[in-house]
Structures are given as C-alpha cells and as structure tokens.
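SEQUENCE-TO-STRUCTURE ENTRY
===========================
What this section holds: a protein sequence and its matching fold, both as plain text.
Question of interest: how does this chain fold, as expressed in backbone structure tokens?
***
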Amino acid sequence: MSEEKYIQIVPSQLSKIALEGLIKEFILREGTDYGLKTYTIEEKIEKIQKQLNSGRVVIVYDTVLETTTLIKSEDLIS
C-alpha cells in the first residue's frame, strides 16, 4: 500500500496562535540563518509568514515521523 509521506496543511486551517507557535518552533529548532543581519523573533515570524502566503514555504504533516513542519514548496514530494 502506497501512502504519501506528506500531507499539506493550508495555513488558514490553523488558528493564528497555532500557526505562530508552529513558525516559532521551526525557527528555534532549525536555527534559521538570515545572513549577516540579526533579526528579532517577530521579524523572523513575519518573513516566514510572507513565504507561506506566497507559497514558497508550505506546512506539512509528515506521516512517517508524525510531526508537522515547514518546508520549501520545491522540496514537497508527493
């Protein structure tokens, strides 16, 4: 039986608090590097929110690991 590894979640399906929590957790877990300039957590959240809105980043539930995370849309493999 073939199962998809990822199930994509539309950001509007999450509450504002849940979405912000997911983004914060991603930022802290990944140690996201933004180059030479230091950004506040709020600025990082805003940058990722813009990437979600543009479709460059998507929210996925990983059916193998049973976790939810953010990935670049180009890395989404169906």
In short: The CA atoms of residues 5 and 63 lie 5 Å apart. The two ends are 15 Å apart (CA to CA).
